[in-house]
Structures are given as C-alpha cells and as structure tokens.
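#structure-requests
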Amino acid sequence: MLIESFYLNTAFIILGAYLIGSFPSAYIAGRLKGINIIKSGTRNVGGMNTVASVGIVHGAIVAAVDIGKGFLVVYLADMFSRSHPFIPMWALAAAVIGHNWMIYLGFKGGKGVATIIGGMLFLSPWSLLFLFLLFIPITFALIKDSYLGTASGFFLLGFFLWIWEGSIWWLVFGLIITAAYAIKCSSLIREYFTERRRDIHPILKKIFKPLFKDI
C-alpha cells in the first residue's frame, strides 16, 4: 500500500488512475504532425479520429498507448491495494472518466473504448471475447449503428460480468462505463432516434462487414 490508511490509499489510487487516464496521447500525436485533434475530424481525442486526421501509424500508436494506460492503471491499482477484489475495477472506471474528460485538455477527451479494453485485459480477459465476438456483433446487427451498438454492448457486458464474476459490483462497474461512453456520444445517440441516423464507422464496417450489407 502507498499509505497505511485504507481510505486514503484508495483515494490516491483513484486520483492517480484518473490522471493516468487523462494522458492525451491522441492530442500529442496530432501536435507532432501540426494537427489539433480537438478541432479536426470528429474532434474526438482517440485512436480512430487520429487514424482519420493524422494517419494510420499514428492512430495505431495512440490506440496502443490508450490500451496500455488502461492496463497500467489496473496493474498498479492491484499492486498498491494488495490485490483488493474491487479497487482495480474502480481505478479502471476512474481512468475511463479521465480519458473521456482529460484534465490536461480542459476536460475534452475520447470515448474510452481502448482504455476499457486495456483494463479488462488484466481484470477479466475472457469477458472481452464475449464483448467483441458476441455482444457487440449482436447489437450492431440489430441496431445498425456503431455508437448506440457499442453502448448497448457495454450495457450487456455489465450483466455478463455480474454473472461471470459473481458480484453485483461488476454490474455497477458496467453501468458506469456504459454511462461514460453514452454521455460522450449522447448527441449521436439522440440523432439515432430523432433523425433516424444510422452510422457505422468505416473501420468497424470492414470488421463486421457481413452485418452491414444494407448500409
């Protein structure tokens, strides 16, 4: 433990997780090429917008860094909490919030997907197989929209983790990451219902091509 007091130690872990999650890899990658990612493309401070606005190589590096910071946060939380069963989970939630609302960029940020993936690689790697091979393909096929489909996939993941891991706190965690993602996509999700918008990101469309023949 960093500090002998359990509550102070947990507070430091959560704060540290938020600050690590706020590391603006996409913004830095854009600036290295003279591009302000906040004002370019979708204005999302994440890997996919970096691919579209800066380049594939830079986008891949950004995605790797964002995955890495999720994994790092959970690893450090596990180590400094002496393998507490739930603190690493809350640390990942804090890192996702940090990624989505980066303190270094005036609380602008990404959507947190890569950071979630990185953390879940440590916490529950098998759950990622269910997320990307079952939940998200099903929601994409039914909803035909990558934003609402991903939010729905995270929502289902929360219930799966509750059953798989045997604690309702995993459901709470799933609802938190679903909310963090959905809030960042709120305008796009709203348009799905009010303007019948259907939008599949080109990269996702290639990955799940059989599901989107009509789009």
